[in-house]
Amino acid sequence: MKLFLRTAMSALMAAVLLCCGCADTGAGMARQPEGGPGAEDGDGARKTNAGQGAGGPWQYADTAMGTVVQQTIYAADQETARDFSAQAMELLWGLEREKISWRLETSEVYRANASAGSEEGFLLSADLSALLESCTLLWERSEGAFDVTLGAVTRLWDIDKWAAESSQEGFEPPGEELLNQALDTCGSQKLRLVEEGSADVRSAESSASRESRLRLFMPEGMRLDLGAVGKGLAMERISALLAERPDVDGAVISLGGSILTYGGKPDGTPWRVGIVNPFDTAESIGILTLEGSWCVSTSGDYERYVEVDGVRYHHILDPKTGAPAVSDVRGVTILMKDGLLGDGLSTACFILGPEKGMALAARYGVEALFVMADGRIEMSDGMKDVFRK
Ligand code: AMP
Ligand code: MG
To answer: What does the pLDDT average to over 300-323?
Structure first.
């Protein structure tokens, strides 16, 4: 048995490569350097600085939500950059702990899952109400390809474990019977979201536009898995945080397959965001040149996977079969202003493939890029304007 496993760290370092203030390599790409000069800042987080002058960049790396967080920050002074980066990390850890983790008893998703099968259901916060509402709309529009009710199945595949452990000796795909039992609990058509009053319950930290709360009813055994939108939600929150920090001039925040650009650099040059080459994850397949604030979200079969006897079991599941989606796509990148939807859309488009996926992206008014299994790249027109090989 031959096994390959990506750790969370390496997968996400490779998920999308960044060029911001760093010198490009021969391949036209540069990873953000780790452990560079002046690495220790004494603030606990691993930190890397790359020859910054006045205004930055200051670079920080840490982990949250099972993945690597890289921050490149432009601000008048280092103290501001350090302060913002610490605030962003707190936000990410808080989001995981209090909202989206299905493992931690402290989180809302955990408690919502525990309510499955109950008559009273579960009263969601305003922000998770908005999140689940957009997830069910995406489920509908993607003809069921995107489905956050797949939790029982994703757990069976033990996706989180692939990323968390350095060895998967003994990995076996789940048997058909178990898979079918788990699949029986899934399907967004089986959940109900019921409006609960219209009082303004928007919490201060919420960036959701919805002001009322929904009560969630799930059948026995159903489990939510927000893995496909969690990083997007995080990006949205970090955008909101940046909007409250006029002292931060520019930033690139990378969280697994999601990247946020914000503001600008002191020298006025654009952001350069590399898209990983699925055939060689140490390389880029091209670069997006972006001005100002954007979210770039990528989903691919190379991000988290186990390979057994030449068969690749990756982390994006087809809700019809409960198995890794069989696709002629290796990776999908969505470019848009709203990180949350971008994250969900890149997952959905991976399963749908370029024809239906491109139509879905157009329906949401966002740009899409598909790297096909035969090496071709298919792009929306707006993506062609910013993408260079
Ligand atoms: P992403 O890396 O954003 O494409 O999201 C993949 C993650 O979303 C997986 O690790 C699962 O937790 C979850 N997931 C897998 N398949 C689906 C699907 N068809 N719809 C929604 N979420 C999914
Ligand atoms: Mg996603």
So the answer is: 89
Name the closest ligand to CA 319. Answer: 1
Q: Residues with Cβ < 8 Å from 259, sequence gap 6 or more? A: 16, 18, 252, 253, 273, 295, 296, 297
Closest Cα to residue 346, out of 363, 356, 361? 361
- pLDDT at residue 161 greater than cutoff 60: yes
How far does Cα 228 stand from its chain's mean position? 6
Encoded tokens for 198: 């219209």
How many helical (H) and strand (E) elements, i.e. helices and strands, does the chain have?
10, 18
- Alpha-carbon dihedral sign for residues 177, 182, 185, 188: negative
State the Cα angle at 64 between 61 and 270, rounded to 5°.
50
Residue among 156, 179, 295, 315 whose CB has most ligand 1 atoms within 8 A, to mutate = 315
Tell whether ligand 1 has an atom less than 6 A from the beta carbon of residue 303: yes
Judge if the beta carbon of residue 369 lies within 6 A of ligand 1.
no
CA 299 / ligand 2 centre spacing (Å)? 6
The half-sphere exposure of 169 on its side-chain side, counting CA atoms within 13 A, is: 1
- Nearest atom in ligand 1 to 159's CA: 10
Q: What is the pLDDT of residues 16-40, one digit of tens each?
A: 344 433 322 222 222 332 222 222 2
Tell me the average pLDDT across 165-192: 87
Give the integer Cα–Cα distance in Å for 172 and 330: 23
Among 254-263, 265-274, 309-318, the range scoring the smallest mean pLDDT is 309-318
Residue nearest to ligand 1 atom 23, measured at CA: 228
pLDDT at 198: 52
Spatial distance between the Cα atoms of 231 and 339, rounded to a whole number of angstroms: 8
Tell me, what's the pLDDT at 244?
Answer: 96
- Looking at residue 387, its pLDDT comes to 98
Alpha helices, DSSP H only, in the chain?
A: 8-15, 78-95, 108-114, 126-141, 151-157, 159-164, 176-184, 230-243, 339-363, 381-386
- 């103290």: which residue's tokens? 79
- The bound ligand whose nearest atom lies closest to the alpha carbon of 153 is 1
Q: What are phi and psi of 125, to 5 degrees?
A: -70, 165
DSSP H or E stretch at residue 204: none
Phi and psi torsions of 214, nearest 5°: -110, 145
Residues constituting the chain: 389
